[in-house]
Amino acid sequence: MRMLTWLFGKKPKLTDQQNERLARWRALPAADIQQPMDASRYVVVDVETSGLNVNKDRLIAIGAIAICNGKIALADSLEIVLQQNRVSDKQNILIHGIGGTAQAEGVPPVDALLTFLEYVGSDPLIAFHVAFDQTMIGRAMREYLDFKLKHVWADLAYVAPALYPELARRNRSLDNWMEYFGITNYARHSALADAVATAELLLALGPKLQTRQATCFQGLRDMERERRRLTHPI
């Protein structure tokens, strides 16, 4: 039994209330990714972590903001810090600004992740460099909820250069694209602030998306797929 626990980990034990919350979320209908952006709700996500190693570092905070019917809904946002048993190091805190006390007094991870799921619903997710955010959130979901998050994502790190291939070489980071479009960030490396900046980037890409007739979430995924094929040919 000890060997099995070491190999597979100990399954988290949720309360009845927590199980009910997860069951209600699971029962939600799937999002319609063919629906036009101006009649949809998307959730833009960013995370803060204890480091950049997706296999070892821990999820510290999630920031998210909704784009509803083609507009950023500032009142429809979420910023949540997961309670940490071990505070991240000083250099890491200097980056994201979430101090030791805030980490130690954060929301218990199970409840924090359930709150995130309830906030998102079944709506599509957007990020800049999706792989990192998706992996860190997915790891936390498996660890604390014994649950695999199967959600549709779109990655603006591929969508933007697909729409502006002539700018792709010199615009690789979120900061590069923010500078090009004149987007400001009120607190860089804050999960919510970075999510807001990413949402603004999506809206800045709007005219080009219209030109390419990519005006629904499936269109974003098509643009992403197109760019991935160019940069990672089989």
- In CATH's first tier, which class applies? Alpha Beta
Assigned CATH superfamily: Ribonuclease H-like superfamily/Ribonuclease H
Overall geometric form: globular
Enumerate the strands of the largest sheet in spatial order, edge to edge or round the barrel: 3-2-1-4-5
Unreliable spans:
1-8
Structural class: alpha/beta
Query: Structurally, how many domains make up the residues?
Result: 1
Roughly what is the average pLDDT, rounded to an integer? Answer: 92
What is the count of DSSP helices, taking H or I runs of 4+ residues? 11
Share of helix, binned: 40-55%
Number of strands: 5
* Helix-strand sequence: HHEEEHHHEHEHHHHH
Largest sheet: 5 strands, mixed
Task: Just name the CATH architecture.
Answer: 2-Layer Sandwich
Beta-strand share of residues? 15-25%
Quaternary structure type:
single chain
Our measurement of the CA-to-CA distance between the termini, rounded to an integer number of angstroms, reads 43 Å
CATH topology: Nucleotidyltransferase, domain 5
From the alpha carbons, calculate the radius of gyration and give it in angstroms.
18 Å
Secondary-structure blueprint:
Elements lengths: L1 H7 L7 H11 L14 E9 L9 E10 L2 E11 L8 H7 L3 H5 L4 H12 L4 E3 L2 H16 L7 E3 H8 L10 H8 L9 H14 L1 H6 L5 H15 L3
Structure description:
By secondary structure, the chain is α/β, with parallel strands linked by helices. The chain is built from eleven helices and five strands, in the order ααβββαααβαβααααα. It has helices spanning 2-8, 16-26, 90-96, 100-104, 109-120, 130-145, 156-163, 174-181, 191-204, 206-211, 217-231, and strands at 41-49, 59-68, 71-81, 125-127, 153-155. The protein has a five-stranded mixed β-sheet, with helices on both faces. α7 (156-163) crosses α11 (217-231). The longest helix is centred in the middle third of the chain and has 16 residues, at 130-145. The protein is globular, with a radius of gyration of 18 Å. The termini are far apart.
